[in-house]
Design goal:
Blueprint (H helix, E strand, L loop, with lengths): L1 H37 L15 H22 L7 H4 L1 H27 L6 H11 L16 H16 L21 H15 L2 H12 L1
Length: 214
């Protein structure tokens, strides 16, 4: 009886946590939409070419980076994601979403460069690779590395390293994809907000704060 009650309690707790997660996502999206409205957009444009304002381009780039940081942090946490518990399909979908966000981040970086946003050397390297037609290879993060296709890719890279000099091998690592596995969502969010506050004027910041309080 005690085991049944404990299992029931755990099920109810998980359902409650899912509800909180959904509500949190809805609230976060509402805040993102309000931020987008500062730059004259209802939501973040799917096509970066629609944005010509450097401040807006930088803002939307930071949004994508924040989402990417959260996704990577989650899939790297064995308490939140695992192939055994969630299944290969769910983990594959999560990893595919990370890859999609990486592509989106690169597109926004290219747009930022086009509209005159100052980029770091690492960011400029991503832009140069994109412009030269170098395709972004698919990376596997966290528990997604346990997927069959991830293990196959790792084995192929290991074989290639044995056949060729190390300097000629493209390492199958997070660094190759210009993503830092160690960065936390809080660090991404904090840096994004700080950069945005520097870019926005005092009036715009006041208007944004007022809109959130409404």
């Amino acid at each position: 009886m005690q085991e049944y009650l404990a299992e029931l309690s755990g099920t109810l707790a998980r359902k409650q946590q899912r509800k909180k997660t959904v509500l949190s996502q809805i609230h976060k999206q509402a805040l993102l939409d309000k931020r987008a409205s500062i730059y004259g957009f209802a939501i973040r444009p799917h096509n970066p070419a629609e944005v010509s304002d450097p401040k807006a381009a930088k803002h939307f780039l930071n949004e994508v980076r924040s989402e990417l940081g959260h996704k990577i942090s989650r899939i790297n946490n064995p308490m939140l994601c695992s192939v055994d518990r969630d299944g290969e399909i769910a983990i594959r979908q999560n990893n595919d979403e990370i890859h999609r966000l990486m592509i989106s981040r690169n597109r926004w970086l290219v747009r930022c460069a086009e509209v005159g946003v100052d980029l770091t050397p690492e960011e400029q390297l991503i832009v140069d690779k994109d412009r030269s037609g170098i395709r972004l290879r698919k990376a596997f993060f966290g528990c997604a590395k346990d997927l069959p296709e991830a293990q196959k890719q790792a084995a192929e890279v290991a074989q290639k390293r044995q056949r060729e000099p190390e300097t000629n091998v493209i390492a199958d690592s997070a660094e190759h994809y210009e993503v830092n596995d160690d960065v936390t969502p809080e660090e991404v969010e904090s840096s994004s907000v700080i950069e945005e506050e520097k870019a926005l004027g005092d009036d715009a910041i006041s208007a944004y704060i007022a809109s959130i309080r409404l």
